Amino acid sequence: MAFQVESAGRSDAGLVREKNEDSYLVEPDLGLYVVCDGMGGHVGGQVASQTAVRTIETSVRAGKLEEAHEDLLVTAILDANRAIYRKARAEPTLHNMGTTVVGVREDHGVLHLCHVGDSRIYRLRQHSFEQVTRDHSLVNLYADNPSLAQRFGPANENVIVRAVGLREELECEHRAVAIEEGDMYLLCSDGLTDMVDDWILKELMEDAAHGGTSLDECADAMIRAALGAGGVDNVTAVVVTLHEST
Fold this sequence. Notes:
Layout: E1 3-12, E2 22-27, E3 32-39, H1 44-61, H2 72-90, E4 98-107, E5 110-116, E6 120-125, E7 128-131, H3 138-144, H4 146-152, E8 173-178, E9 184-188, H5 190-193, H6 198-209, H7 215-228, E10 235-244
Antiparallel strand pairs: 1-10, 2-3, 3-4, 4-5, 5-8, 6-7, 6-9, 9-10
């Protein structure tokens, strides 16, 4: 079954940070949508996130799929990991740079979802709103392994345990889900989710889903909500809707 995909993306440096280290990718011809949140040094985060989106687009556009990988997007993210890692090793000012990544790729009625780090993907399906990724955070690692908390004490809420580009090898989490008519997805950096409650995101998405606002207006409203709550971090939102082609 073929689906028509509509999307909108917005990004803002916020009210505190000088640079925007987030990057996003909207490529309708590839059915590809990505958000990256960079980190590391004076310019490293910006370089890492930009390198990631460029490498992911190039890899998917080339149709590159390594045998052991579930989808083109997995191969693309691992290509980005190697590109960032090598660039960081070659340039001392970029040492320890890395980035989170969330991405989706539509392929003949199936949506491939990938993520690394604590950027998130949410889905609105009918009236059900859920986070469909789980943060690769120290908090969740300790929750899964209570003995670590006993040994090392409470987890720092801002620490992630997996990122693109920090190490030569990377595990990218992947899911393939069947698309249903009217599905709406949100890909975003933590600059949005740390500042705006899930129920507000749901209301904004429902308004767009029912035609009260456009996707562009929905993405704009999400950015405004984050800025209105303080805008302490870079903030990025990409909204995607899928409808059966007629």
